[in-house]
């Protein structure tokens, strides 16, 4: 018997029940485990903005279904080998077990809900910052400040002037001398001349 009923797969975050948009699903269907293992009937689909994807008709007409979600961890234990009845999903709806949190979703005929441990989590609250003392900046000399009319992008850095060289210490004044009369100078010069032998 060919079924034309639409089967919808919903992918939800197991911790908060939010839909996982644009998730890549690998779907396998078959008549038994061997068919699923050999991927006899396989298709890839992506969820829409509401975390929903449609099970392709060729897979919806096979009795068993297996599902994988790329880059996400399915919250049901043993999800890699879990097999789901397509007839039960069509008739009653079904939700896979949620081992990642307390999120639930009501089952409805033709809907299959799978919970995943999403890698996209709401941001954690920021830790309070520790306060520390701030040192006051050293005063900037007035000569080093840029003129107010120049913009910061075009203002050329002004060089800081080199410190002025220290003035030399004043020299000691020469000792005061008393003028010597010219006659005494001659006597002084004669007395200092070496004796001629």
Write the layout of secondary structure elements.
Elements: E1 8-13, E2 24-30, H1 33-37, E3 41-46, E4 52-54, H2 57-60, E5 64-69, E6 73-74, E7 84-85, H3 86-91, E8 94-95, E9 111-117, H4 182-192
Parallel strand pairs: 1-9, 8-9
Antiparallel strand pairs: 1-4, 2-3, 2-5, 5-7, 6-9
Report on the structure:
Strands 1, 4, 6, 8 and 9 form a five-stranded mixed beta sheet that branches. Strands 3-2-5-7 form a four-stranded antiparallel beta sheet. Helix content is 13%, strand content 21%. The protein has a domain at 8-117: Immunoglobulin-like (Sandwich), CATH 2.60.40. By secondary structure, the protein is an alpha+beta fold.
Question: What's the short version?
Answer:
The chain is α+β, with helices and mostly antiparallel strands. It has a domain at 8-117: Sandwich (Immunoglobulin-like), CATH 2.60.40. Helices cover 13% and strands 21% of the residues.
Jot down its keywords:
about 200 residues; alpha+beta; Immunoglobulin-like; 5-stranded mixed beta sheet; 4-stranded antiparallel beta sheet; 4 helices; 9 strands; about 20% strand
Q: Tell me, rounded to a whole number, the average pLDDT.
A: 78
Largest beta-sheet characterization: 5 strands, mixed
Give the uncertain stretches in residue-range form: none
Instruction: Specify the helix fraction band.
Output: 10-25%
The CATH class of the domain at 8-117? Mainly Beta
Number of helices: 4
Q: How is the quaternary structure best described?
A: single chain
What is the CATH topology classification name of the domain at 8-117? Immunoglobulin-like
The CATH architecture classification of the domain at 8-117 is Sandwich
| Helix-strand makeup class | alpha+beta
N-to-C span: 157 Å
Order of SSEs: EEHEEHEEEHEEH
Q: Which of globular, elongated, flat, extended, rod-shaped describes the shape?
A: rod-shaped
Total number of strands:
9
Please give the radius of gyration in angstroms.
48 Å
| Percent in strands | 15-25%
């Amino acid at each position: 018997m060919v079924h034309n009923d639409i089967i919808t797969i919903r992918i939800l975050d197991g911790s908060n029940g939010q839909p996982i948009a644009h998730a890549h699903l690998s779907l396998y269907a078959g008549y038994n485990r061997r068919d699923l293992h050999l991927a006899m009937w396989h298709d890839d689909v992506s969820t829409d903005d509401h975390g929903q994807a449609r099970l392709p008709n060729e897979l919806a007409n096979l009795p068993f279904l297996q599902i994988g979600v790329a880059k996400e961890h399915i919250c049901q234990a043993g999800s890699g080998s879990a097999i789901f009845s397509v007839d039960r999903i069509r008739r009653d709806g079904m939700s896979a077990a949620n081992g990642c949190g307390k999120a639930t979703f009501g089952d409805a005929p033709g809907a299959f809900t799978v919970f995943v441990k999403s890698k996209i989590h709401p941001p954690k609250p920021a830790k309070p910052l520790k306060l520390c003392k701030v040192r006051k900046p050293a005063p900037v000399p007035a000569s080093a400040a840029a003129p107010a009319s120049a913009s910061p992008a075009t203002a050329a850095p002004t060089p800081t002037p080199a410190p002025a060289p220290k003035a030399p210490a004043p020299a000691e004044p020469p000792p005061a001398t008393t003028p010597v009369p010219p006659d005494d100078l001659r006597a002084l010069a004669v007395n200092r001349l070496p004796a001629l032998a």
